[in-house]
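Researcher: Please predict.
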Amino acid sequence: MSRVQLITPATASPERKEVLDRIQSAFGAVPAMFQAVANSPAALRSMWGSFGALAGGSLPAKLGEQIAVAVADRNACEYCLAAHTALGRKAGATAEEMAAAQVGESNDPATAAALRFALKLVEQRGQVGDADVQALRTAGF
């Protein structure tokens, strides 16, 4: 039995359904994390808004998902790994690219640099040095 009730578009109030329908349109399904957060309409709106804000960032979706699978693997989050692997494939990454990213590797030098930097952020709890930032800039970021 689930500890948190999952709210689906079929069971949602009109306020929640509107947001869940947008999520379903974007992903093709409503991921369980959104169904759980939908218990609070305010939290659901905030979480979905954050996703939208990140989508407007400067990193391409494919690279963002490659970073996400590397971080998910390092954090041992199977749910996140599965979700971001699927999103990475949807963003145009091959299965091989996503598998390599999961272990922090890429044949593309810029992607490899971004993965190294992201994993260092996780491992060092945000404590990166000037050399780490310079390596990322040298890679084109």
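Model: The mean pLDDT is 93.
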